[in-house]
Amino acid sequence: MITSATLKVFPVAGTQLVQAFTLPALDDGLAVMREQPSLGIRPFLARRFDFSTVENLLATEGGCAETIEVAPNWSDISRLHVALKEALAPYADEVLAHFSHVYTQATSMYVILLGSAPTDAEALERLVTAPLPTPHRAAGPSSSSSSPPSSSPTGPPGRTSW
Predict the structure, then answer these.
(1) What is d(CA 91, CA 133) in angstroms, rounded to the nearest whole number?
(2) HEC profile for 72-120?
(3) Which of 42, 44, 71, 129 has its CA 20 to 30 A from that of 15?
(4) What is the pLDDT along the chain (162 residues), one digit of tens a residue?
């Protein structure tokens, strides 16, 4: 039961400036993102909800895709980025990640897995026989119950998703 909540309202900017930057390393980019809320910068990308790459892949025979969203504190995001990409690599041809929803204490990281096989059956076999990743805990209180992710794929008939 939620007994109280705090809402923070931000004014809408009068103008929109669209720019992109390339930085030498992930940690450099995360440092820039971490500073944005304190400067009043609220980045926004109009196509951030474009899911067509995943949808198109799932519509093809043998296509596999999945998305995962996590939001650890700033101190944990870089380590978790590396650990997730490494642990999920056996399940996909590509493991991508992007960051959004920048707050003073954290950012959201969206991890996208993309893969393909000649047939849906072969894609499923890859998912079932890939080694289970070692569970990682990025932050927070310790937990005595930790279960590995399920290797059972789900999704609409004729499509494979994990």
Answers:
(1) 10
(2) CEHHHHHHHHHHHHHHHHHHCCEEEEEEECCCCCECEEEEEEEEECCCH
(3) 71
(4) 889 999 888 887 677 777 777 899 999 989 988 888 888 877 666 666 678 888 899 999 999 998 899 988 999 999 999 999 999 998 899 999 988 888 888 889 999 999 999 999 999 888 888 776 665 554 444 433 444 344 334 433 443 434
**88 CB neighbour count, 10 Å cutoff:** 20
Using CA atoms, how far apart are residues 82 and 101, in angstroms rounded to an integer?
20
Token reading at 35 = 């500073």
3-state class of 68 per DSSP? Answer: strand
Dihedral angle, C-alpha 9, 14, 20, 23, nearest 10 ° = -50
| Residue 146 near residue 137 (C-beta atoms within 8 A) | yes
Whether 95 contacts 113, CB under 8 Å: yes
Helix (H, G, I), strand (E, B) or coil at 66: strand
